[in-house]
């Protein structure tokens, strides 16, 4: 049987990109299916379940994109949901993987703030790729040691909400306006725990999920975006019922049912609060009230600092069809 040819376009997350791209080698592409099974590195053709990519070609290199194509056996092709491209593999640095799910096309949004209607469209697009739900038990926030020292010395031990930066969608009504504290909640599917790596600093504040998210808080959908890599981010806002943050969000953002939504849920089972998060998107949770450090613990992580995953003031990829909506045309 003749192997079909698949052409995939993906964007490089760094520039200058040619430096990175020329290091892309035959070993740099892995395939992955919905259950997280990976193919062998493409240089090793032993894996039976998933086909092995070969004849990899890079072309059309510009400063923010390149075209990558490869051949592969059509066997089991339908099971493939992710392509992992490891740009650092040949240099043998710390693993730095970018996964890509779809081909990109031109797709623009206008410069105006999104209305609730637009945000609901964005929400629906995010629901499509959110994936299955995994259990979580804590929210966490990584920072440098100096940040926590500063909070202890100058803010009476309480982390204070600050104005959200301009990362994410151009039309986001919360950028530069909403005040809150960013938390993560994703877990690793193999351990059920937060990853040991973080782009935001070696110290981690960890807090039991029920202290931030419970029936006394409202949950809102804030944004859905990616940044020239295939990781997709969903911003959610948790606001104590009736707080200033809650009032702000109620007017601007789609509200989610805390027990039943595709991203982050809180429900009671046998008198215990149980939490779940979507596996296939990175959730950025903004909590709108101050949080005292005494409600959780601060400890150093053992993993790496992955700068590539930082979203601070990052610009959204306007050409990604997965997370852009067409506005005002
Ligand atoms: Zn996207």
TrEMBL record:
Residues 112-329 form the Phytanoyl-CoA hydroxylase-interacting protein-like C-terminal domain. It comes from Limosa lapponica baueri. It comes from the Eukaryota. CDD domains: FN3. May play a role in the development of the central system. It holds the Pfam family PHYHIP_C. Belongs to the PHYHIP family. Signal peptide: none annotated. InterPro entries: FN3_dom, FN3_sf, Ig-like_fold, PHYHIP/PHYHIPL, PHYIP/PHIPL_C. One of its GO terms (cellular component) is cytoplasm. This is Phytanoyl-hydroxylase-interacting.
């Amino acid at each position: 049987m003749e192997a079909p040819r698949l052409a995939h376009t993906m964007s490089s997350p760094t520039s200058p990109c040619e430096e990175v791209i020329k290091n892309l080698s035959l070993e740099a592409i892995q395939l992955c299916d919905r259950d997280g099974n990976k193919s062998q590195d493409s240089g090793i053709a032993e894996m039976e379940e998933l086909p092995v990519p070969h004849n990899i070609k890079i072309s059309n290199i510009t400063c923010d994109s390149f075209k990558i194509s490869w051949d592969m056996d059509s066997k089991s092709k339908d099971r493939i949901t992710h392509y992992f491209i490891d740009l650092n593999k040949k240099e043998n640095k710390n693993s730095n993987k970018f996964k890509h799910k779809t081909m990109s096309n031109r797709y623009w949004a206008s410069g105006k703030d999104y209305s609730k209607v637009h945000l609901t469209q964005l929400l629906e697009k995010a629901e499509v790729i959110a994936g299955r739900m995994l259990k979580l038990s804590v929210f966490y926030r990584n920072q440098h040691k100096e940040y926590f020292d500063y909070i202890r010395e100058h803010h009476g031990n309480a982390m204070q909400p600050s104005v959200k930066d301009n990362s994410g969608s151009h039309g986001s009504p919360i950028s530069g306006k909403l005040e809150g504290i960013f938390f993560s909640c994703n877990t690793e599917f193999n351990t059920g725990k937060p990853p040991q790596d973080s782009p935001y600093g070696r110290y981690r504040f960890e807090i039991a999920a029920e202290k931030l998210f419970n029936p006394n808080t409202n949950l809102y959908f804030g944004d859905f975006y990616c940044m020239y890599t295939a990781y997709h981010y969903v911003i959610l806002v948790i606001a104590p019922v009736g707080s200033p943050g809650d009032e702000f969000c109620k007017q601007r953002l789609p509200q989610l049912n805390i027990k039943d939504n595709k991203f982050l849920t809180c429900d009671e089972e046998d008198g215990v609060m149980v939490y779940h998060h979507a596996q296939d998107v990175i959730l950025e949770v903004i909590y709108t009230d101050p949080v005292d450090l005494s409600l959780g613990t601060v400890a150093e992580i053992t993993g790496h600092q992955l700068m590539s995953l930082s979203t601070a003031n990052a610009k959204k990829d306007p050409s990604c069809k997965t997370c852009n909506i067409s506005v005002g045309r």
